[in-house]
TrEMBL record:
Pfam families: PBP_dimer, Transpeptidase
InterPro entries noted in UniProt: Beta-lactam/transpept, Beta-lactam/transpept-like, PBP_dimer, PBP_dimer_sf, PCN-bd_Tpept, Penicillin-binding_protein_2
Lineage, uppermost ranks: Bacteria, Candidatus Uhriibacteriota
Xref: SUPFAM superfamilies: beta-lactamase/transpeptidase-like, Penicillin binding protein dimerisation domain
Protein name as it appears in the record: Penicillin-binding protein 2
């Protein structure tokens, strides 16, 4: 083996010596920033490579300061995220698996005055989807909706329509199909298990009892319908997109009381949107039960009697009211034709609703409270009371009826009886409905000074005409008490004496509702106290105890009881010898007034009757209207006769 020298470098023979080719910068004070490139020269090419630069202390200090500032900024932000805003971001994260759902309350029942339930809540099963659980990918979401629609036996379009704006729907399930059978519900629970957000929900539906034999209950009770977009926008704080609310009748007017307050349930869900754990519960508060003033037996018989008379004449439209004159409680409220409110429970198709809405007889229209009609001669007792109160007449004032009056030798205003009624005082004028007497009383004639339109309007208003009664139903009409200012503003015409004469006999522009006339008649019956007609007696607790609602009725008379004794005598005379003799067959003494209200030059008049019984101790007041029924004595009086005979016959039999 060859001995190597002590200073032998084993790599020296393998590396070329670049020392001679290395250009070193000159020594001295040359600025380091101007250091040249270091060139390494090869045998054929020259490759230039940047090896590095030295950093001056000042620049190094500046860079260190900048890095320190960045570190402080990042540390501060980390503190904000983890400590100061930690709860906020934790809540956002929890929102991905924790939800607050509403739990419905039990809607309060509605009873008649005898405790008979008029509605019932029935449980129902529905297929629902929570929109926020649907995939965000458009294609995947479309696939899920299509599969769900197929399983539910509905169209994908209907699902999309139900879901609407996902953001607006939030985390609450949206019902896409109702009324599942038990078997369907079980099957869908299994089949939709893998579909995000799909569920089978339990809810209730509201049905009106007896509506199959009492169509007038539709106007009275009303129905529930799914909340509309406009309603949801207005009531967003307390209603969900699946909720139903009262759309008509008592259900609408007392929506808040009947609905109660929904509860809240905080739940933990899994990735598929399924509830896995209940974290907290705020129980719902059930709605209040209402006890109505309505007697379901009285309602049924009054409807049956009115419908029978209408059918016998080939008519369909009419209204009838029965109320207690002593306290304003409405015992029956009938509008015909009516409708079955249970049709709306499952939802009507557009065609089905159109048939109802476009029916010329308007079955959805609550005539008893919203229909306005000329009162005809039924207004005469009010103007008789006004004339007696104002001293325009006395009970003995006599006016000669010769068949009508001629005003200014030009305008003829007739009596209904050719040749007239002869000498007439106020009770005969009411009993025989003598127009001439009320022309004098209202507008005056020759040297006789009448009430004039201002006092006529004032007294009619005292009896509740021209304004809403305040009954607990939506859509009540005010009616109309015309005066010169109204006519000039509405028609652009002056008020003439003929307008006053027409007003005095319930013709022309004056309009009333059947409920207003029942209330006015009740005031005459009870000695002059105008009682507000009302439909609810009070709230019922679960034990059946009644908490009566506060009454706003006044006992102050609107007119002298002595004056009304004369008026009532005239109404009694209507039955004993006037246009309502048929009522003598009723087992108690009845007083009343017929009316024939002209409203068209080509169609029949409306038939009216208003009255009360028993005459000396009134228990009930009624108003009957039959649209285009002709004379009140011919068609309206028989309705009152049959109804009152049944009503008091029932009482006698029970005794």
């Amino acid at each position: 083996m060859t001995n190597l020298p002590d200073n032998f470098d084993p790599f020296a023979s393998r590396l070329p010596d670049f020392t001679e080719n290395l250009n070193v910068p000159p020594s001295g004070n040359q600025d380091i920033d101007q250091a040249p490139w270091i060139s390494v020269k090869g045998t054929e090419e020259t490759a230039s490579t940047y090896v590095g630069v030295a950093i001056r202390p000042r620049r190094l200090a500046a860079m260190a300061g900048a890095l320190t500032a960045v570190f402080i900024l990042l540390a501060g932000r980390a503190f904000a995220l983890q400590i100061a805003e930690g709860e906020h971001y934790t809540a956002l994260a929890e929102g991905n698996r924790i939800r607050v759902l509403s739990t419905p309350s039990e809607r309060g029942l509605i009873y008649d005055r005898q405790g008979v339930p008029l509605v019932e809540n029935q449980p129902t099963l529905s297929l629902a989807i929570t929109p926020s659980d649907l995939p965000t990918d458009i294609e995947r979401r479309r696939e899920v909706i299509t599969n769900l629609a197929k399983l539910g036996g509905i169209t994908a379009e209907s699902v999309i329509e139900s879901i609407g704006d996902i953001k607006a729907r939030g985390l609450q399930p949206v019902v896409i199909r109702e009324d599942l059978s038990h078997q369907e519900a079980v099957k869908l629970s299994v089949e939709t298990n893998g579909i995000p957000g799909a569920s089978v929900a339990v809810s209730t539906k509201r049905f009106v009892r007896f509506s199959d034999k009492m169509e007038s209950l539709g106007h009275l009770i009303g129905y529930l319908g799914r909340i509309t977009k406009d309603e949801y926008a207005r009531l967003n704080s307390s209603y969900g997109r699946n909720d139903r609310l009262g759309k008509a009748g008592i259900e609408s007017f007392y929506e808040t009381l009947l609905r109660g307050r929904f509860g809240r349930k905080e739940v933990e869900i899994n990735a598929a949107g399924r509830e896995v754990k209940v974290l907290a519960i705020e129980p719902p508060v059930d709605g209040n039960a209402l006890e109505l003033t309505i007697d379901v037996d009285v309602q049924e018989y009054l409807e049956r009697t009115l419908k029978s008379q209408l059918s016998a004449r080939g008519l369909r439209r009419g209204a009838a009211v029965a109320m207690d004159p002593l306290n304003g409680e409405v015992l029956a409220l009938v509008s015909l034709p009516g409708y079955d409110p249970n049709q709306f429970v499952a939802g009507l198709s557009a065609e089905e609703y159109a048939r109802l809405a476009e029916d010329p007889d308007e079955p959805l229209f609550p005539r008893a409270v919203a229909g306005t009609y000329p009162p005809g001669s039924t207004i005469k007792p009010i103007f008789a009371a006004a004339a007696l109160s104002e001293g325009v007449i006395t009970p003995r004032t006599t006016i000669l009826s010769t068949g009508g009056i001629t005003y200014a030798n030009r305008w003829w205003f007739p009596d209904w009886k050719a040749g007239g009624h002869g000498p007439t005082e106020v009770t005969k004028a009411i009993a025989d409905s003598v127009n001439t007497f009320f022309y004098y009383v209202g507008g005056g004639f020759e040297k006789f000074s009448g009430l004039g339109v201002e006092r006529m309007t004032a007294y009619a208003s005292r009896f509740g005409l021209g304004k809403k009664t305040g009954v607990e139903l939506p859509g009540e009409a005010e009616g109309l008490l015309p005066d010169p200012e109204w006519k000039l503003k509405t028609k652009g015409e002056e008020w003439y004496i003929g307008d006053t004469y027409h007003f005095a006999i319930g013709q022309g522009d004056v309009l009333v509702t059947p409920l207003q006339m029942a209330a006015a008649t009740a005031a005459i019956a009870n000695g002059g106290k105008l009682k507000r007609p009302h439909l609810v007696r009070g709230l019922r607790d679960p034990q059946g105890n009644l908490q009566e609602m506060t009454s706003d009725n006044s006992d102050d008379p609107i007119i002298s009881p002595e004056v009304l004794r004369t008026v009532r005598a005239g109404m009694r005379r209507t039955v004993t010898e006037g246009s309502a003799k048929e009522l003598q067959s009723v087992p108690v003494a009845v007083a009343g007034k017929t009316g024939t209200a002209q409203w068209s030059s080509t169609k029949r008049s409306h038939a009216w009757f208003v009255g009360f019984a028993p005459y000396n101790s009134p228990e009930i007041a009624v108003a009957i209207l039959i649209e285009e029924g002709g004379e009140g004595s011919t068609l309206a009086v028989p309705v009152a006769r049959d109804f009152l005979a049944w009503y008091f016959g029932r009482s006698i039999n029970n005794d």
